[in-house]
Write the structure tokens for this entry.
Amino acid sequence: MKTDHRNEGSKAEPVSLIKCLTECGRGEDVEVVSVNAGFNARRRLYNLGIYPGSVIQKRKDAPFRGPLQVIVKGTNIVLGRGLASKIFVKCEDSCTFN
Amino acid sequence: MSCHTPRNNYKKNEYDSKDTINIALAGNPNVGKSVIFNQLTGLSQTIGNWPGKTVEKLEGHLDFLGYHFNIVDLPGIYSLSTYSLEEIVSRQYIVSKEVDLIINVIDATNLERNLFLTFQLLELKVPMILAINQMDILRKRNIELDFEGLEKAFKIPVLPVVAVHGIGVHELLEHAIDIIETNPNGEYDFPDLTSISSFGKEIESKIQKLIIEIENNHSYLLECNYPVRFLAIKMLEKDEEIIKLVKKNEKAQTLFEIRNEFASDLEEYHGEDINSIISSEIYNNITQIVEKVIKVKSKKEMMRRNFADRIDHLTTHSFWGYFILILVIFGIYAFTFTIGDFFGTIIDDAFSLWTVSIYSIYGEENILVKLFWDGGLGGLIGGVAGVLVYVIPFFLTIEILQDSGYLPRAAFLMDRIMHILGVHGKTVITMILGFGCNVPACAGCRIMETVREKKISIALTSLVPCAAVMTVVLGLVGRYLGLGWVLVLFLINFLVIFIVGRILNKTLPGTCTELIMEMHEYRKPNYKVILKQTWLRSKEFIFKAMPIIIIFGISLEIIFILNVLEPINLVLSPITVFWLGLPMITGVFLIYGIIRKELTLVLLVLFAENIGLTLGSLLTPVQMITFSLVTMLYIPCFATIIVIAKQTSWKYAIQIALLEISLALLVGGVINLSLSFLASVL
């Protein structure tokens, strides 16, 4: 449902955009909007502090389209790219380009 | 599922003698729980398995202030859901009547995430102490923690600990005694959870209604020892274990209907799914508490953290990261091999000198000398000189890697590549361990979340050339044909691993799960902790594996005495001689190699010496390559097979063994034929 917003990043409107975690910029605090993973993975992410409303930050991408490092509640969590693409976050417009 | 007699409230186990206190250590992974466990129980520990589970159970004992303490180090977990076996084992054990008190170990530098488990543990209604570890680091960062505030918030004792230096560790037990003594009849005054972990009004009212429903109409659920409030919350969360319990009963339908109605009410109200609501409410509570108790005084510590950050950046870098990874793997080899070889040679030389004098006194053909000196003691010395001297430095390097926090970086770098083989990055951790020794590495495959991934990881890890295999490859191919050929053999080995991974990925049902892994900050390894852990692991090996090696040594000698070598070699000769092109005698050596892989080379050398030849004149270069390759691949060693069976099943262990035998024959045969052909052409 939220995937429609993906390509709107290029429009220079000063609104927050919803996109998946893989697409958002590094080092920016973003708010989780929804986690569309399967039941088990979703509950795991919730328990680790990645739930709708929590604020997280992408720290680093692994080379070759590998996993992501995300800072959650002060800890470093590594998420597989497939999973990260199912996490939707609210970004400020500025993080589209980096 | 395990159902015990109902546990009304905390009662001291009547079967135990009066002065035994049973403690469970619980906490997130990597918070120093095991360090506290080691500080307390020292070397009196047993490592076993949880009944019927593949989860490791660590138990230790100590006598302190007139009490006997029985301490269980639970696996590191993030929550009490059913995400992994560890979580289920932990919560079932805590509510079983075997636990008098929980010590919840918490990393002071990471309060928020750690307290999530604390909130869930509180729901289990077992007396609890919070141990806040790594207080030294917190102080260095000039952050102050208000312990009174924490105690007020949770209504349980909260104590500072610096586990690596043993500070505050025994105070935990003093408090445990205090709690037990002030509640002699087990009438422990539990804090009112509705005031601590209060969910929002809507959720709390649903929980209360579910509690009443369960108490009135579904009391069979209480037989599983979980407190009713825990059951109600888990019902809302759609917890698999609890759902299964309910389903067993015929009244289940009504409870499900109520649960579903409540859940959809709440989901509609909040606009999120129920698990998200519950997690976020718990985290909201935590944030409120943490904001009150933490005081940042200044940010002086940034210097050191920057250094750790820089190492972190380098080891996860898209070029240097891989470079360092390769260096680390070679480092493990080089260290394990150099140290092991050095001490192994000394011990072997000493033993052979000693043997000469024993022979001269009692005679070489004396059957007792053969059995107990050559067999028993020979086996022991072989075990020490051939295995133990490699295993100890290996454990040492692994502990350093683990304690510093490097291994998750390797998983981060390799995740993408491992997905091709049907597993995620964590398998790289077990594979790196496999370079030293397949046995602990395959046991380490328990970190994989699903059965499918565990199976693939074990298959891949058991194919990694271990230090013992390295001694064969280096001692034969490396010594006579040069390191270039060693590299070729390695490449073939990794190609085989790659193909096996691809095949398993295609054939095993299910899909690859995604990596979810915590990556800790680097920390300076503490040498005391490392030495202690190394010793504990080595001790485990010495007392469990060495007796087996000695027994095998004796039985080997019996086989020699009975002279059944020839028939075995004859039976194997179609494979060894015709297909692999090896001398007939190697057949039996390869069988011994199942016990310990380096035996293949050791026996070959002994045999060559016996008939007055050197290895170089006994084997042709092609035979050397084939022989090494077959040794690399042909079967996991005996101890590895046992570990695989323990982690999965005997069926799978035998399947792996058969798969690897056929792979070795296939690859060995093809290499033999093609190299022989090339040699004849050239």
Remarks:
- Chain A has one domain: 16-96.
- Residues 49 and 72 of chain A are 6 Å apart (CA to CA).
- Strands of chain A lie at 17-20, 29-35, 55-61, 68-72, 75-79, 87-91.
- The helical segments of chain A are 39-48, 81-84.
